[in-house]
Write a structure and sequence with these properties.
Length: 316
């Protein structure tokens, strides 16, 4: 299914951006290979989504995933401001495309809900990128109704073993065999690795390790898969996307999409890369002279076609 509506993830709140492609590329040179001047073929709707009773405003929104059949959208947010620890709010919200709230679940399971994906059977996977000794450092697989079907990692325990996770950022599932790929760790995290599991959660292998060379990682913040089964890893602190085979073989690196915080690839291999951090350097090697937003292009050859500017500077 071609995704005609893409949700722009902001630090708080959601906006809906709808597609109206009609673009031509400009010859203006890029900074760091990244363009700020590309066409914006989208219309932005700044207010979207009905919040549950008792939830006054959006907390930090970390993931947006359409259902397999295109009938609804899952939104993951952090309950209150930037954490679900000790909160009663539900971090997983299920909407129709008009923004009507259909369901919510996940209360009490997460500290720092982070990445998400919907698999080929329509199940939702969500990561928890922090832990407190009691909960966290896990990945949950939910049915569309919110039932827990599988967990990865040990509850509240972070580590480097084959049965442990430490700050899992994001997850993707192969639609052919159900194999699972988890990207970890978050900023100053322990492992900086991609872990490959079988569909039942059995550990298969891992690769990565802290560094900036080919195949090395520094805060692998997001992961996605194209139609060929290649893995696109948002190696955020290295300001690049790395592309791997499912065996962990390095294929290429792309820097033209900015500092990747989120990646979404359609079945037609259009790639949407959210850059939420470029701008002033806070000590994490952020790109300077680059505008935050979403860059849209081809996952086949890396051509960047469009740019959706972040709306944060326009807030009151």
């Amino acid at each position: 299914m071609v995704i005609q509506k893409i949700l722009q993830i902001l630090s708080v709140g959601l906006v809906l951006v709808t597609n109206s492609w009609n673009y031509a590329q400009s010859p203006v040179p890029a900074v760091h290979g990244v363009r700020n001047d590309l066409p914006q073929p989208y219309e932005t709707q700044r207010t979207w989504g009905e919040l549950p009773d008792g939830t006054a405003s959006w907390a930090a929104v970390t993931a947006v995933e359409p259902s397999l059949d295109g009938r609804f959208i899952y939104v993951i947010h952090r309950c209150f401001e930037n954490s679900c620890e000790g909160r009663i709010e539900t971090p997983i919200l299920k909407f129709d495309y008009e923004g009507n709230l259909l369901d919510s679940f996940g209360a009490g399971l997460f500290i720092f809900p982070h990445g998400a994906t919907v698999d080929y059977e329509g199940n939702l996977w969500v990561t928890d990128a922090q832990g407190n000794g009691e909960i966290g450092h896990q990945v949950f697989k939910f049915s569309p109704e919110g039932d827990i079907l599988l967990t990865l990692g040990q509850k509240g325990i972070g580590g480097s073993g084959t049965d442990l996770l430490h700050s899992p950022n994001d997850i993707v599932v192969d639609p052919n065999d159900g194999d699972i790929f988890v990207a970890e760790s978050h900023r100053r995290g322990l492992n900086n690795r991609i872990i490959h599991f079988a569909s039942d959660g059995t550990y298969i292998k891992e690769w990565g390790g802290k560094g900036s060379g080919p195949g090395e990682l520094s805060e692998p913040h997001t992961i996605a898969m194209d139609s060929q089964g290649r893995l696109f890893v948002g190696d955020r602190e290295n300001n690049r996307i790395q592309i791997f085979t499912q065996d962990g073989e390095f294929i290429d690196e792309w820097r033209q999409f900015g500092r990747p915080s989120g990646i979404f690839i359609t079945p037609e291999d259009m790639i949407y890369v959210a850059d939420s951090e470029s701008g002033p350097d806070t000590g994490a090697n952020e790109l300077r002279g680059i505008m935050k937003g979403i860059r849209v292009g081809s996952a086949v050859d890396g051509t960047v076609l469009a740019f959706i500017e972040d709306m944060e500077p326009l807030r009151d």
